[in-house]
Recover the amino acids of this structure.
């Protein structure tokens, strides 16, 4: 009996000055493909479901991932300003509703959104990320960026760390989305 060989390959996209940046983008694209496949049949009600007040919804997490990708890439390439989110994504940097207050409810900005709305948002963010990442060089990966956060604290990050952070951020919230789907389905079965 012939055995089938299942291949798991991650080809690098073309047009990047840095293979390392191309690798991060390839990983983000693969992870996003898995995430959207796993969420393919999700309903607007499930996207908006909140396990209890103060907890994030799947939709909020999806929007947050898009906003964070655009935000951090803008930091990496020195293009961040408060209006950029609305220009690139069509939503503000705080329109994901995160973080929620302990008794908070999902933001009005996401009310009624379906999966296609969230995938469009993430697609706009990813186009921005890819376009900017194509211009990064290997030397850019070690460049340090000092920034002051909203709370007044200061941090220093490298461009390499930014790309890593965007990838691990997406992976973490993808896991949360899957957990919320299980909770939603379990709640419905018990009802």
């Amino acid at each position: 009996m012939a055995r089938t060989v299942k291949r798991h390959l991650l080809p690098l996209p073309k047009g990047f000055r840095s293979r390392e940046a191309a690798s991060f983008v390839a990983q983000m694209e693969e992870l996003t493909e898995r995430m959207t496949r796993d969420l393919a049949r999700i309903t607007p009600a499930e996207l908006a479901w909140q396990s209890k007040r103060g907890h994030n919804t799947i939709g909020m997490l999806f929007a947050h991932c898009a906003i964070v990708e655009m935000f951090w890439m803008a930091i990496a390439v020195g293009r961040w300003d408060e209006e950029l989110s609305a220009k690139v994504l069509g939503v503000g940097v705080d329109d994901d509703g995160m973080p929620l207050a302990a008794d908070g409810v999902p933001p009005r900005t996401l009310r009624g959104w379906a999966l296609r709305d969230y995938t469009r948002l993430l697609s706009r963010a990813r186009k921005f990320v890819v376009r900017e990442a194509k211009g990064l060089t290997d030397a850019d990966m070690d460049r340090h960026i000092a920034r002051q956060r909203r709370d007044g604290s200061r941090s220093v990050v490298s461009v390499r760390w930014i790309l890593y952070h965007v990838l691990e951020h997406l992976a973490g919230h993808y896991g949360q989305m899957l957990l919320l789907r299980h909770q939603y389905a379990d709640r419905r079965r018990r009802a």
